[in-house]
Amino acid sequence: MKEFLEMINKYIHFRTTHSELVGFWYTELGAMNKVFHIWKYDNFAHRTAVRQALASDKDWQGKLTSAILPLLEKQHNEIAYLVPWCQLGKPPKEGGVYEWVTFQMKPGGPALWGEAFRAAINAHINTGYTKLIGVFHTEYGLLNRVHVLWWNESPDNRAAGRHRAHEDARVVAAVRDSVRFLESQQNALLIPLQCSPLK
Questions:
Q1: Range of the domain at 43
Q2: For every residue of 69-119, which 3-state class applies, written as one string?
Q3: How many domains, in total, are found in the chain?
Q4: Over its length of 199 residues, how does the chain's per-residue pLDDT go in tens digits?
Q5: Boundary (domain end) residue, out of 13, 43, 71
């Protein structure tokens, strides 16, 4: 893992010449030896053009891809959109930690659970203990899945804030309303790489 992260930090500029990197993190809690990275595309045609360019980029293929492939056990990708009511945010300062929360919602899509889910997110925002970075809804991959990216000053600040939130009547009511649409939830604590625009 250490070797992988060092190579990413050293050579990721070959990849970012082709499209915008939103963020790149490794997991500290919730999963081991795993990385998350988010790339921004204008549309599907843009993504296709980027992938074609990468396939013929000798620096990308020779210096990074060929070196990291033997280190990988598996890969997974999804196409996801920011939900209409959320803009991509930035942390108030560099440093801190990120939390990637994956909610598997019941079939039916946002028409079924969107309003309740948004209310639960807003209730957490309104407590002020955490900063919302983005809410993403899958288009390809496992459907009815929503990823929420939060920023916190430290794991301890996050833990203290969540304990306070669980005693907040607004949060409790909103969560109770939204969990009827929830099938599962998974959280991961993320540390940004040096090369990550979101730090």
A1: 1-71
A2: HHHCCCCCCCEEEECCCCCCCCCCCCCCEEEEEEEEECCCCHHHHHHHHHH
A3: 2
A4: 999 999 999 999 999 999 999 999 999 999 899 999 999 999 999 999 999 999 999 999 999 999 999 999 999 999 999 999 999 999 999 999 999 999 999 999 899 999 999 999 999 999 988 999 999 999 999 999 999 999 999 999 999 999 999 899 999 999 999 999 999 999 999 999 999 999 9
A5: 71
What one-character DSSP code corresponds to residue 70?
Answer: G
- Quick one: how far is CA 36 from the chain centroid? 7
Q: Are residues 63 and 12 in the same domain?
A: yes
d(CA 23, CA 197): 6
Contacts of 62 (CB under 8 A, 6+ apart): none
> To which residue do tokens 């669980």 refer?
166
Tell me if the pTM is above 0.90.
yes
Q: Give me the helices (H) in the chain, please.
A: 2-11, 13-16, 44-55, 58-59, 66-68, 110-127, 155-165, 169-178
- Pair of tokens at residue 29: 């809690």
Q: Tell me, yes or no, whether 92 and 140 share the same domain.
A: yes
